[in-house]
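Late entry, evening session. Most of the bench is empty. Finally got around to the prediction I had been postponing all week. Sequence below, unchanged from the version circulated by S.P.
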Amino acid sequence: MSYYENEKNIRDYIKMAEGYNGKALIESLKKYLPSGKTVLELGMGPGVDLNLLREEYVVTGSDYSNSFVALYQSKHPDEDVLVLDAITIDTGRKYDCIYSNKVLYHLSKEELAQSINRQYEVLNENGVILHSFWEGDREEFFHGLKFMYYQLSDLTKLFETRFDILLIEPYTEMSKDDSIYLIARKR
């Protein structure tokens, strides 16, 4: 069973993440993506950022966890949500933007490269991505979950193969400059 399919783990995650959201990231996104565009959120979890994105965009939420998708749908039965793997992004739909907040750091560098290629295919022409990561240069495991920490140079190398990086910079989530986010446009 996946970590995020267990009810207790989901409750613990929701409690731990209370008070954190991507509001500042979404404000940055607005500079590069006009209102009303379509956005796919990878790894929506309980849907905090999804609800914020929905205020400005036409949003599809997705998560690898059936439980997170079901939980969100139980509270928002008319909203568009999918069960998707962030590597394969197995959908026939196209989007103007793909967004994730501290989700892709669960992928190895090889898996992240595969996801980047698939994101390129799923985006409309001139599509935009916004992703955030924990900053660092290490790999950890917790309850079977992988946590990859990335540096600016690593992320630049991975994303510049398919995207023009518009903005990449550190930001503070829990401690000074503990995180990185990037916004890039499909070439």
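Two things to note before I forget:
Residues 109-122 form the longest helix (14 residues).
The chain has a mean pLDDT of 94.
Will write this up properly tomorrow.
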